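queue> pop job 88
queue> type: inverse folding (structure -> sequence)
queue> payload:
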């Protein structure tokens, strides 16, 4: 059974139909890349899965349980963590405090949460020396690592990542994707929305492409990237060709 099943998903923003008839599934332990141009509906898909917006049609099933009508908090407690675009580090809090906010277990003591946050610095050693610095003092790449660590604090079965490389220098992008690969090695299932199709397909087991709110195609990363027409039309390889 798939860990996540999305069936005929529809989302509307007023009169605008942002998603229509989107269906896909993710097996536990996989990294799946969700690709497409700006406005295709990638971030909307993640927001629907994490409960930030309500679907207008279809269903979302996580670990055998329908979650389309649940609150974001309830979805987090089931094991879904969402790292949104833009990092959203709280500037008035230290790096450690920002990471601690990701803990979803209300029964854990503050000392236990602090120890778990400190353990995150083993996975993100580049920000260890900034543990007690305010979040706003870090670079964009370092803030992205804080956001990833905060998402992992919930010990999610499914991690939703929205544009983790956005606005970062190429060398930092490579570091972020090395961390995503390490997160996968540690057993997390990842749904990755990313404009950098080449990097995303480099860590993914499978890829889906959205086009104007519909699922255009899916396939193994090598197949998607090796097809020149698909690469140019959907994956940022050049100008979209007439079809």
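queue> result:
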């Amino acid at each position: 059974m798939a860990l996540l099943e999305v069936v005929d998903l529809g989302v509307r923003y007023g009169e605008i139909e942002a998603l229509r008839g989107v269906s896909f599934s993710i097996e536990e332990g996989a990294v799946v890349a969700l690709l497409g141009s700006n406005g295709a509906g990638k971030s909307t898909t993640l927001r629907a899965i994490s409960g930030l917006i309500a679907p207008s049609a279809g269903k979302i099933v996580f670990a055998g349980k329908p979650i389309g009508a649940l609150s974001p908090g309830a979805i987090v407690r089931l094991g879904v963590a969402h790292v949104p675009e833009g990092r959203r580090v709280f500037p008035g809090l230290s790096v450690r405090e920002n990471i601690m906010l990701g803990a979803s277990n209300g029964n854990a003591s503050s000392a236990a949460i602090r120890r778990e946050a400190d353990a995150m610095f083993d996975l993100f050693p580049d920000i260890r020396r900034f543990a007690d610095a305010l979040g706003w003092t870090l670079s964009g790449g370092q803030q992205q690592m804080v956001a990833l660590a905060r998402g992992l604090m919930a010990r999610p079965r499914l991690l939703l990542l929205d544009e983790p490389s956005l606005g970062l220098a190429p060398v930092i992008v490579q570091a972020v994707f090395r961390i995503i690969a390490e997160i996968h090695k540690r057993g997390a299932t990842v749904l990755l929305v990313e404009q950098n199709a080449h990097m995303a397909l480099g860590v993914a087991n499978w890829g889906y492409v959205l086009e104007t709110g519909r699922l255009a195609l899916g396939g193994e990363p090598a197949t998607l990237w090796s097809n020149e027409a698909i690469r140019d039309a959907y994956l940022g390889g050049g100008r979209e060709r007439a079809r």
